[in-house]
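Example 5.3 — Transcriptional regulator, putative
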Amino acid sequence: MPKKQIYSIGELAREFDVTTRTIRFYEDQGLLSPARRGQTRVYSPADRVTLKLILRGKRLGFSLAESRELIKMYQPSGDNRNQLLALQDKIQQRRDQLNQQLRDIQALQQELDDADQRCEDALTALENPDHV
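Solution (predicted structure tokens):
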């Protein structure tokens, strides 16, 4: 079975579980460039792949600007080494950011535990004023 050569906006929206408005937003941002057949948008396999990469980047926590930068680095006839190295760098930056957020959350949890313990101690002291 040959690969499909064109996709409608509805087909892409269903396939990737996004709204047609989302796809039009990416088009407005210059990331997708469908052809037109009258008033109908016609998306190419390259547009489909681009949409897939945008959504994957979003799941990984990349900004739209970061995804755009990586997508623009793609060279169909090249080995894409620079793109892959840039992607690895973005992944490491995201890992570092998530690790910092995790440390921040753990510190906050400890502060909450300490505050909760102080409340417990104060309540115990109120209930047993002779044991202070």
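Remark. Helices lie at 9-16, 20-28, 45-59, 64-72, 81-127.
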